[in-house]
Amino acid sequence: MEKKMRFGIKSKIISGYLIVIVCLFIAFIVLNSQISSLQKERNFIIDHDIEVHDLTNRIEKHLLDMETGQRGYIITGEASYLEPYNSAASSWEKDYNALYQLLNNNPNQQEKLEKIKGSIQDWIEAAGEPTIALKKENNTKELQQFFEKDPGRQYMDDIRSQFTSFRNVEKKSTETRATELDEKNQKIKIGLYGLLLFVTLISLAIAIVLSNSIVNTIKEVTQTIKRITASKGELKGRIKVRSKDEIKDLGLATNALLENIEERNWLQTNIAHAVTMYQGIASVDKLAEKFLFTVSEMTGASFGAFYVREENDKGNLFVKQAAFADRKGDAGRESFLIGEGLIGQAALEKRTLVINDVPDTYQLIASGLGDVKPKSIFIVPVLFEDEVIAVIELASLHEFTVLEQELISQVIETFGLTINGVIRRMEIARLLKESQAMTEELQAQSEELQTQSEELQMQSEELRMINEQLEERTKDAEEKSFELEAAKEDLEEKAHQLELNSQYKSEFLANMSHELRTPLNSILILSEMLEENAAKTLSEDEEEYARIIHSSGKDLLALINDILDLSKVESGKLDVLLAEMNMSELPDQIERNFSHVAEQKKIQLKINKAQDVPDIIHTDEKRFQQIVKNLLSNAFKFTESGSVTVSIQRVADHRLTTAMRTVDTDCWLEIAVADTGIGIPKEKHQLIFEAFQQADGATVRKYGGTGLGLSICSEFAKLLGGWISLSSGVGKGSTFTLYLPSLSNGLVDYEKVNFAYEEVAVSVEEAEPEAEITEIDHPVQPVEPSLQDDENVFQGKRVLIVDDDQRNIFALKTALAKQGMTIMTAHNGIECLEMMETTEPFDLILMDIMMPQMDGYEAMQKIRGELKLVDLPIIALTAKAMKNDREKCLEAGASDYISKPLDLNQLFSVMRVWLVN
Q: Fewer CB within 10 A of the end CB, N or C, for the chain?
């Protein structure tokens, strides 16, 4: 019922707004009606009066057109002047009738219009039509007589005066209507102001009523709150509100807040009292008694017991330390274990128990008049660091309220710390007594320790001096470390520069190799052709010249190869390919390659091979052959008479050094090349193994050479895991001994092996197949005079030579033409592709690699890819015989690969293979 009768602030404000809106709506309807009436009258004035004036002006214009047309025709006689006359004569009556209808509510004006109509018709009958008829009859005399009297002028003057009178009346009528409209507008304005005043008064009245109903109630609440505030903490007063709106809700909420604050104040006051109560207590039993008394007084408890945890052989035992309302010491049991009874269960679960249904067998509360059964039991454990250190049990004749339970719970939160502090203080006091007894004993010992301390102090001083010396040495070491770090950075920078220099050197040598091999190719091919003298056109001297040119070209090629090999070794780019090598064939190979040299120089060649030399060893056969051939070539070059002896034997186990034993090998071989030549001074033994060095300048002049052979042999020997030693004297000949392991398990790491050399630190890369590497100081083999066989596979074959060097083109074209081949030439890859698309197919292509516009790699890729000529033989020719050139050419599409300068025998052999296949 109270909820139905509720009339809140929101409802009051909405009701006030609705009343104001209704008043405004009524005012709007009235105002709209008046404005509509004004609008109609205004429209009437605008539409009616303006139309009347417009029609009047049009009738007067028609009359003026008739008079003008009549006079123009009479004066000129032109029929065109009658057109406005006739048009106006037919139109003015229509406008007259419309004007007459507009004035149907004004008889006076209609009467004036009728007079104007009569005057117009009189003018037409008396002046208009007769004069026009006379003009048509060309009766000039009567026209003159007519115009001498001119009765039409009088008619026109009368018509104009009538129109003026008519317009004046209409003007006055319009002004009258406008005045009436202004009066009505003024009345509406006054009514609007009055209506606005009325609505304002109604709104103010509603606002005053609503605000009073709200403000008066708020004032009552405010006065009550002020009285409570002035009572200095007394919160007994409550707010009473009679209205049934939100203010009443505010008052009820404020009353609830006051009750809550009153309870909190009571709670905080009692907590503060309880905390200050047990300060300064030094024993647990006194603390327990004080606590029980204070809490019982606050909560109205009638009975209580306080238990504290003690440790014994049985575990944790809770022993009674104090009781409240104790009757001869029978207030509760003396002790209990965890989990024993309700109080033990509360200690076990670490939670508070509140029991309101107390069993009949519970301890009775004694008074002077008798024993009373309690109504409520409150058991609460006391925790410290999440461990139960005490348990309190209270009993009351009334049920413990929520506020009383909260009071005890909050007091207990910090009470565990207090109990633990008291226990610790008691323990400290006990320990203090024990420590005092021990102090006396320690005092005697301290005197002895003092003596020892003095001795230790002296030792400490000595240690301090030593420590200072160590610190100084540490600072010196740090400074040296900084210097070493700076030196390391400097060395790294220099190493980087050396690496760049090595790279530039390699690029320079590669380019120079190409530039030198290109003209050398032409020299060797043409000199070889001249040496053959197939046409028998050269004399013996000219043939000798050609042989000398060819031999010199071969020597130059060997020098280029020596320089490239030395560069590769120094830069670590020379690869070693380990494989099996047949040592049983080595003596025959030496005999076959150097027997003719021995015969020419009349020197005896001796080859000795021991029986214990294995038939198969693992090494890089090509590098091994280069070392042996170079040593033998030097031996024959520097020996004028006597003999050259080659000794091949296995190094016996007792001769193996410690360094040789560290190498993982099957056996060590010793290949010695001894000669009876000029010999080498002992001080020059190390010098000759350096690049571009020989024993002295006279040796260079007499025997020639570049001084690269032994340097390259030494580096090759290191790559193969061995070294070369020298035993020689001036005039006693020389013995070069190659020590070499059988590397069946891979290459040797020179950083871990210390051989006879003082400095051996060459690291080798992983083995890869090496491109074409020419041998050192190899013997010159003469070219066979004819390369044709019985079938002559070259006859009539179409061959395309692609090269940008005209000298190479000329040499190759001349040599191939002699074999009966048809030769076409192109100077770069673009010309090659154009010729292949426009001419007959070719049987074979000789493709140079380094060319302008389009090089050989791209040209071969387009031939294989775009032209789809997969089976066409293409032999790549290049003077840039560097690492991986062969693989790059084959990947680009080459069928085979030959490095410049070309050997015609090799070239014809390769061409024969591909043309036959």
A: N
The pLDDT tens digits of the residues spanning 510-560 come to 566 666 666 767 777 777 777 777 777 777 777 776 777 777 677 677 667
CA distance 824 to 59: 114
Helix (H, G, I), strand (E, B) or coil at 241: coil
Cα torsion 367, 371, 375, 376 to 10°: value is 70
> What amino acid occupies position 858?
E
φ and ψ at 750, to 5 degrees? Answer: -70, -15
Q: How many CB atoms lie within 10 A of CB 292?
A: 25
Q: Using alpha carbons, select from 588, 721, 589 the residue that is nearest to residue 666.
A: 721
Q: What gap in Å lies between CA 706 and CA 562, rounded to an integer?
A: 9
* Tokens 């030959």 belong to residue: 898
Task: Examine residue 841 and say whether the peptide bond preceding it is cis (omega within 30 degrees of 0).
Answer: no
Q: Quick one: which of 200, 196, 199 has its CA closest to 188?
A: 196
Residue given tokens 């190498």 in the structure block: 663
| Residue from 673, 606, 691, 686 nearest 634 by CA | 673
Could you tell me the pTM of the whole model? 0.32
Distances, alpha carbon 759 to alpha carbons 166, 724, 756, 762, 838, in Å:
143, 13, 9, 9, 64
Reported residue count of the chain is: 917
Q: Write the CA distances from 814 to 534, 794, 819, 831, integer angstroms.
A: 12, 14, 9, 21
Percentages (nearest 5) of helix, strand, coil residues in the chain: 60, 15, 25
User: Phi and psi of 141, rounded to 5°?
Assistant: -65, -50
In 809-819, which positions are buried (b, 16+ CB within 10 angstroms) versus exposed (e)?
Answer: bbbbbebbebb
- According to DSSP, the β-strands at 844-848 and 874-878 are parallel
